[in-house]
Design a protein that fits this description.
Blueprint lengths: L1 H14 L9 H8 L3 E15 L4 E4 L4 E11 L3 E4 L1 H8 L3 H23 L8 H15 L4 E11 L5 E3 L1 E6 L18 E5 L20 E6 L2 H4 L13 E12 L5 E5 L11 E3 L5 E7 L2 E2 L4 E2 L4 E5 H7 L11 H14 L3 H14 L4 H15 L8 H26 L6 H9 L7 E2 L3 H6 L8 E2 L2 H13 L1
Parallel strand pairs: 17-18
Antiparallel strand pairs: 1-2, 1-3, 1-5, 3-4, 4-8, 5-6, 7-8, 9-10, 9-12, 10-11, 11-16, 12-13, 13-16, 14-15
Length: 464
């Protein structure tokens, strides 16, 4: 009977998902990915300068910095790195210097090269000589009128203007190599127009060495890849790794080290765990000495608890999102093969934010499977349960019959206990005559009853 009960429990375990069934890795990434967006800090400018003959005003190629942001609140609040938006926010001197250099190339160097019949790159030594002379004449007196702007590009191609609500500067160093006085947590809170956007929830726990990490973002090596079209800027990339260490930056702020790959453009991107909750924000990669090449496997993340602390005093409600409710329900139904429900809930999400890449793909998959359902796997779990219940019924019936047959039986141990306690029970030997004569066993003091005579007496009594 115990074996039968064990089989029943095993079969029910196969069928029941449990009250806190974990999402799959694929589902976890899909839950977080629509909330990730490409952040662009662009500084256009009008530069007035004199190349030696006359004063001119030009509009050089804008300075552009790209990074990754993610919605922390579905009403329109995003988090990214401070250093991603810093060029457009504080307009540091190096950005102004870059704009002046571009203006000098456009207003001074290019005309001088054309006048001498030289194309860019044709005579590097002569070109560099012209650039040095033009820079010496024009750099110090050049006047820059910057026009900074921030934008957020969603995966459906919609570009939104963004404002900075809160800013914590990136870690900086002075001319002596010591941390700058204004060094901060390298975070920025952005605001885009009100809407129903996806959002990523913050983790409430602490990570440990070896815990999985998934970095989502827009690495520049993908966005600018010569073999890819512009759609690469709409679909975030995911890299996987684990927590590989715990470090501190130069002013003692905590970092989570990870071996998940990252590159320029991933900055500000979310690092999530297997539960789709935010572990932290990517802030730094590692460069190889003088070459400046990124060394993979040694990247650093701002912990989620520091993001929560950074949001103190703001109107942000972390993880809140009407979109998430429909999106999560749609994914749950899709992964559970409930395609009709999946289509309904995914359509709700798509109405809030039309044509987000992942939502569009999930909705198309649900609609396709609703029309042409895939063949269902053989129901081994149900067969196992049926066989188990049948076996339990058979063994249960046998046990019941045996119990009923022996319900009045007194066990030898009970007889011995009665004798030892002084109650002197009367023994009755009701074996048949043949069994009595052929058996060497005798019961001293027992009353002899012939079972045939007993049955005959019972019949006579009943007939009477």
């Amino acid at each position: 009977m115990r074996a039968a009960l064990a089989l029943i429990l095993a079969a029910l375990t196969l069928l029941a998902p449990g009250p806190t069934a974990a999402v799959t890795l694929q589902e976890a990434i899909l839950l977080a990915k629509p909330a990730v967006a490409l952040v662009t800090a662009e500084v256009r400018a009008e530069v007035t300068l004199n190349c030696g003959q006359r004063t001119v005003t030009v509009r050089p190629t804008p300075f552009v910095e790209t990074g990754t942001g993610w919605f922390i609140d579905g009403r329109g609040y995003l988090i990214t790195n401070g250093h991603v938006v810093d060029p457009a926010h504080r307009l540091p001197p190096w950005v102004i210097h870059e704009l002046k250099k571009k203006a000098i190339d456009q207003a001074c160097v290019d005309p001088a090269l054309r006048a001498q019949g030289i194309m860019r790159g044709q005579n590097p030594e002569r070109e560099e000589s012209i650039r040095r002379d033009a820079t010496a004449r024009a750099m110090s007196s050049a006047q820059v009128a910057p026009m900074p702007q921030l934008s957020v590009l969603l995966s459906n191609g919609v570009s939104l203007k963004a404002q900075i609500l809160k800013f914590s500067p990136p870690l900086g160093f002075d001319i002596n190599g010591k941390p700058a006085a204004d060094s901060g947590r390298d975070l920025a809170l952005l605001r885009v127009p009100e809407g129903d956007y996806p959002a990523i929830r913050l983790s409430d726990g602490e990570v440990r060495i070896g815990d999985p990490i998934h970095i989502i973002g827009f690495p520049g090596v993908v966005n600018a890849h010569e073999l890819l079209n512009q759609s690469a800027r709409l679909d975030a990339s995911v890299t996987n790794g684990a927590v590989s260490g715990f470090k501190q930056d130069a002013i003692g702020q905590p970092f989570i080290q990870t071996d998940a790959a990252a590159a320029h453009g991933n900055s500000g991107g979310p690092a999530v765990g297997d539960d789709a909750r935010l572990v932290g924000v990517l802030t730094a990669t590692t460069l190889a000495g003088s070459s400046g090449a990124i060394v993979q496997g040694f990247n650093f993340i701002i912990p989620a608890r520091d993001v929560r602390k950074f949001l103190d005093g703001t109107p942000v409600r972390p993880g809140e999102s009407r979109f998430n409710m429909a999106w999560m329900a749609g994914l749950d139904a899709l992964f559970a093969d409930r395609y009709s429900t999946a289509v309904t809930r995914l359509q709700e999400a798509n109405q809030m934010q039309p044509n987000l890449t992942d939502v569009k793909q999930a909705l198309a998959e649900a609609e396709r499977k609703l029309k042409n359902p895939p063949p269902r796997p053989f129901p081994w779990a149900w067969i196992t349960l049926g066989v188990t219940l049948l076996s339990a019924g058979i063994y249960g019936g046998m046990f019941g019959r045996r119990w009923w047959k022996n319900r009045y039986r007194i066990l030898p141990a009970q007889v011995i206990a009665a004798i030892e306690s002084g109650r002197n029970p009367q023994l009755v030997d009701a074996r048949t005559k043949t069994d009595l004569e052929t058996s060497p066993l005798r019961l001293p003091g027992a009353i002899r009853l012939d079972p045939d005579a007993v049955l005959a007496g019972l019949r006579a009594f009943l007939e009477f």
